[in-house]
Structures are given as C-alpha cells and as structure tokens.
Amino acid sequence: MSDTAVKVIQKVTWIGSLANIALAFIKITVGTMTGSQALIADGVHSFSDLVTDTAILIGSRYWTAPADKEHPYGHGRFETLTNIFIGVLLALVGIGIGWESLTSISEQAHSKPGMLAFAAAIVSIVVKELLYRWTAIKAKAINSRALYANAWHHRSDALSSLPVAIAVIANYFVPELHYLDQIAALIVTAMILKAAAEILWPAVLEITEAKADADIESKIQAYAAEDSDIKEVHAIRSRRTGSTILLDFHLLVDPVMSVDKAHTIAENFKSHLLYELDEVVDIIIHIEPFNCKERVLNPCCDDCDSDINTLS
C-alpha cells in the first residue's frame, strides 16, 4: 500500500474519531437529560466507534508495511485481525444494549423524551450518513477493507439513530407508548449485530483460506483464451490477505517450446493479470507442457502415455 493510501486512512479515521467524540457526548448527555434510554444506547454505540477508529489507526501502521523476511506474503492479515476486532466489538456492544433493553422493557418511564432528544438523533443520522458515504468512497479508492468496515460502522450508527428518532417523537406525542424507547433500543441492537456479522464473516472466510473471489477463475480463463500461446490454465488457487489477493495456477504451453520463451509467456500473462485484476498483488505460475499427461480441462486420451505428437 502506498504512502498516499496510508495518509488517506489516517486522515479519514481521525476526522471520523472527532465526529464520534462529539456525537457520543451529545447523545449520552441529551439522553440522560431527557430520560431516553434508546438515545443513551445510541451514544454508547457512537462511543464504541472510537475504539474501532483506534484499531484502524494502530493496525494500518502494520498492514501497510511491505513484505519482509518474517512476513514474505506481506502484512495483510493484520488488516483481517483489525476487521475481526471491529466485528467482535460491535457484537459485544449490540448484545450489551439488547440486554439492557430487555431487562427494562416492562418498566414505567419516569419522564418522556423531549424534542431535544429528537434533534440529537436527527443530527446523528445526518452526520454519520455523511461520514459513511465519504469513508466508503475513500476506502474504495485505496481498496481498504478495514476502512470500508469502519465506514459501515458509521452507517450502522446512522441507521441506529433512525428508530431512536421515531421512538422519541412517538413517545413525546403519545406518552402511553413509553415502551417504544426500549423497543427502539432493541432495533438498534439488531442493526449493530447485523453490521458485526457482515464485517466478521469475510474475515472468517479469509482466516480459513476460502477462495478469494468467486469470479476470479472465470476471469483468468477468459484472459488466457485471448493468448494463442497459452494452451490451458488449471489448478487455479486464490486466497485473500487483507485487501489483497494472492494467486497461483498451472499454465500449459507447447511442449517443444524453449524454457526461455515459456517463461516470457508466463511473465507477460502475469503482468496482464496484475494490471486487469485490481486486488491481485502476486501470482505464482507453474509452467507445464501441453501433453496428454498434463491436460486437465480437455483431456486428449485415456492412455496418458500416448505420443505427444498426436496432439492437435
């Protein structure tokens, strides 16, 4: 990752942190003043964003580091660990808010939230949605999954403020519906847990070495078909490390071709793939002769000891 990308991550995260501090303080203070449990819960959610911001600021110093002797494949998994931390923290915050709401849902409200609580929720929705859109654009520009996960943390905060605003305004005009505040907090919980799952699942797939991209094999085959010197590509394997993808596959060429020419074909194809596939940063190609023994996609005979001169 370039120095420019690192600076983008640092700048976006610091601005988001300052916004989170302000919003958390406003929502918790106003929630306490007006007696809105949902707004307080939403403020705690905003405060949890500060922890994830810190994880991004610290983690980015590691996952952006180049490959070294101890980490020959790079440091991308540090970004994966950061995503896991963000997802787990979100889940814990959601569970805590949900438990507090469930245990107090039958309690009578001592006061009804006023329009100040409604205004605080609206401000949160607007600010956090703007932060989400801006952070997501920056994350896409530099291809950072962790920054995009943090963008969704902003979006979950914006969405969580929506039921809070609805509950506050409904409770203001219809005090008998005091339980709407707790129900809104439960809706906030569901949204937080959903966001946590959407962040955690890709990280789990990466840690368990799942295929990086469902479409990557078909893309490679399509590019290979455009090169007449490439007879076949098979045994394609891909894995993700942070925001990048590592590839390896077998490439078959004319068996009478010189090693030097076969190497050149492989290197040119590798360069082409690195240019076309944005997330791919390294490719290992195993060159094989295009004969009956090595062919996989279109086997030419049942007896693999056949003379290679019978090849079409």
UniProtKB/TrEMBL annotation:
Q: Which SUPFAM superfamilies match?
A: Cation efflux protein cytoplasmic domain-like (SSF160240), Cation efflux protein transmembrane domain-like (SSF161111)
Supply the alphabetized keyword list: Ion transport, Iron, Iron transport, Membrane, Transmembrane, Transmembrane helix, Transport, Zinc, Zinc transport
Residue ranges of the Cation efflux protein cytoplasmic domain? 214-290
Q: Name one GO cellular component term.
A: membrane
Task: Give yes or no: UniProt keyword Methyltransferase.
Answer: no
Q: Name one Pfam family in it.
A: ZT_dimer
Mind telling me what this protein is named? Cation transporter
